[in-house]
Amino acid sequence: MTDELLRALADPTRARIVELLTVEQLCVCHLVAETGATSSNLSNHLRLLRSVGAVEAEPAGRYTYYRLRPEVLEAVSAHYAALASRSRLALAVKRPCD
Amino acid sequence: MTDELLRALADPTRARIVELLTVEQLCVCHLVAETGATSSNLSNHLRLLRSVGAVEAEPAGRYTYYRLRPEVLEAVSAHYAALASRSRLALAVKRPCD
DNA sequence: CGGTGATGTCAGCACGCGCTGATCAAACGT
DNA sequence: ACGTTTGATCAGCGCGTGCTGACATCACCG
């Protein structure tokens, strides 16, 4: 669970991209239409999402389809679930301040 | 599930704070010792974490103890779990590009 | 083969944001 | 009461990073 992955998913524009991709696979032109962002802007965001393994690209002729990698999202979910679980136990412990 | 909450948790320093607080409740002086950051730096981070509801502060005389709010972490986990679940179905759908 | 449209890349700019240092308030110990 | 310590707040600085615009590339179509 790298910080880079969490930071990549926490950006508003990229979070929007991820949300759109949870419905169906989309090519960049769809994302341009849905988000209103420029193609170069989206291309930069998609490159970052690729670099952290959150999405993968499938060139299809002139277009490029993007899809999510569910395992990665599942890993993020598990990460926060573990933090939540441990934090429940932590409420019972208080380190003395001396 | 606000973007602000996700962004707050994605910052490396704040992620470290959260991780430390999953073990036990700590006051700011402990966090200073554990992270090596300055108290004003930590105070700023803690204020942001408070503003998004991730932690709560309990003044105890001269000290201030901080603890996580497990429900919030659980909500974040559930958020990503839902994305992961939906994304699995999305792999079977591909919007035509015309 | 040119023309067009889809996508990627990069340099440059601007804004956001994290870090610092100074200051202040409150609480404890002497 | 006074000094010390904890912690919060704020202004200012600097760096990271997202956005843009121009250019390059590749695939399709006439």
Task: Kindly describe this structure.
The first copy, chain A, has five helices and three strands; from the N terminus they run ααβααββα. The first copy, chain A, is an alpha+beta fold. Chain A has one domain (3-90): Arc Repressor Mutant, subunit A (Orthogonal Bundle). Chain A has a three-stranded antiparallel beta sheet. In chain A, strand 2 and strand 3 (63-68) form a beta hairpin. The longest helix of chain A has 21 residues, at 70-90. The radius of gyration of chain A is 18 Å and the shape is elongated. The two termini of chain A are 34 Å apart. At the A-B interface, helix 1, helix 2, strand 1, strand 3 and helix 5 of A face helix 1, helix 2, strand 1, strand 3 and helix 5 of B. The structure holds a DNA duplex (30 and 30 nucleotides).
Mean pLDDT across every amino acid position of chain A: 97
Overall number of strands of chain A: 3
Order of helices and strands of chain A: HHEHHEEH
CATH class label of chain A: Mainly Alpha
Largest sheet of chain A: 3 strands, antiparallel
The CA-CA distance between the termini of chain A, in Å, is 34 Å
CATH topology of chain A: Arc Repressor Mutant, subunit A
Strand order of the largest sheet of chain A: 1-3-2
- CATH 4th-level superfamily of chain A: Winged helix-like DNA-binding domain superfamily/Winged helix DNA-binding domain
Helix content of chain A: 55-70%
Oligomerization state: homodimer
Label the structural class of chain A: alpha+beta
Largest interface: A-B, 47 and 47 residues
What is the level-2 CATH architecture name of chain A?
Orthogonal Bundle
- The helix count of chain A comes to 5
Characterize the overall form of chain A: elongated
- Given as residue ranges, the uncertain stretches of chain A (5+ residues, pLDDT < 50) are none
- Strand percentage of chain A: 5-15%
When the domains of chain A are counted, the total is 1
* Integer-rounded radius of gyration of chain A: 18 Å
